[in-house]
Design goal:
Layout (H helix, E strand, L loop, with lengths): L4 E9 L8 H23 L4 H13 L20 E7 L4 E8 L5 H11 L4 E3 H10 L13 H8 L16 H6 L6 E6 L5 E7 L20 E3 L5 E6 L1 H6 L2 H12 L3 H12 L7 E6 L5 E5 L3 E8 L4 E6 L1
Parallel strand pairs: 3-4
Antiparallel strand pairs: 1-5, 1-11, 2-3, 2-6, 5-6, 7-8, 8-9, 9-10, 11-12
The structure holds aspartic acid.
Aspartic acid binds next to strand 8.
Length: 315
């Protein structure tokens, strides 16, 4: 039988054991465990890679610890604006959304765009209108409130700075101690089809409708059965300019590199030269997984049909 696998991430950055309490670490591990369990159950039951990544992401979006859906960071205006994308490697179909307000699970809307619109990418009010038309679940602003993200935002809201998530400190530490919290998933199903999905609240104190790499097909999210499925996390701007996810795919498709070797070039050579701090998870159509990052840590996990399972935070 074809090997089937799932991998997830919950963001990369300066995640150090000495900054973590045992309780918080346990809560992150539990959140990743739950996401892997629901996503992997889809694959075990013969479900598609697309449905597996969607299920894994919904679980992370509903968890306040991660910067996506319910746990999204605050913008300069003190609201949440969320981005998400999903892509199917079998037919190169994709759906993406950005600048969403009040949508409980942005990945569900991205999936609706992929399946039930003539478009690939919807933004802002139009995307919200489409959510209403498709009967996607909306929630009031209070649903998305979390005290630690509010405090994180309060520390920098009067400045022009924007910051890269998952931090509980003041401005100075915030800017020095960059952390990212986007969520992502990649899967390979029993048919050997692969898929990728990414969802994020973006960056704390972002303004002017800033959009990162996460919803951009080829930058933060990409899937192609001929090469790989990739979901990125990190400082979005360099990942956009590097077209990071598609670059891994090209190295595999045109140069014949393995997933591991292609990701190594992009994460450890290309991105650092552009100040691109972060990481990515990847999957090939044989169900092989790679999880690489150039930051101190990345919340990550994988499971496959051969009984392998990893859940880890630090390097
Ligand atoms: N890549 C995301 C962005 O720039 C942030 C993250 O991964 O945490 O919006």
């Amino acid at each position: 039988m074809q090997k089937f696998s799932l991998a997830i991430h919950g963001g990369a950055g300066t995640i150090l054991k000495e900054d973590m309490t045992p309780e918080l670490e346990a809560a992150y591990m539990k959140g990743m465990e739950a996401s892997l369990a629901v996503g992997f159950a889809v694959l075990e039951q013969g479900g598609s890679a697309v449905n597996a990544v969607k299920a894994a992401i919904i679980s992370l979006e509903d968890n306040l610890l991660f910067n996506a859906g319910r746990g999204s960071v605050f913008t300069k205006k003190g609201v949440q604006e969320m981005d998400a994308a999903i892509m199917s490697g079998k037919d190169l179909a994709a759906g993406a959304v950005s600048g969403l307000r009040n949508v409980r699970n942005p990945i569900e809307l991205a999936n609706e765009v992929m399946l039930h619109s003539n478009h690939v990418f919807l933004s802002g009010k139009g995307a919200n209108d489409f959510a209403i038309k498709q009967g996607i679940k909306l929630e009031p602003d209070e649903f998305f409130f979390s005290q630690f993200r509010y405090d994180q935002w309060k520390a920098i809201r009067d400045s022009d700075n924007y910051s890269l998530d998952h931090t509980h400190q003041g401005l100075e530490e915030l800017m020095r101690d960059k952390k990212f919290g986007t969520v992502g998933a990649v899967a390979c199903d029993q048919n050997g089809d692969i898929a990728a999905a990414t969802s994020t609240g973006g960056m704390t104190n972002k303004k002017y409708g800033r959009i990162g790499d996460s919803p951009l097909i080829g930058c933060g999210t990409y899937a192609n059965n001929k090469s790989c499925a990739i979901s990125c996390t990190g400082h979005g701007e360099p990942f956009i300019c590097a077209v990071a996810a598609h670059d891994v795919s090209c190295l595999m498709e045109y140069k014949g590199l393995s997933l591991e070797a292609a990701m190594d070039i992009v994460i450890h050579d290309k991105l650092p030269k552009m100040d691109g701090e972060g990481g990515m998870i990847g999957m090939d159509a044989a169900g092989n997984v790679s999880m690489q990052f150039n930051s101190a840590g990345m919340y990550r996990g994988m499971m496959n049909s051969e009984g392998e399972k990893i859940i880890a935070i630090y390097a």
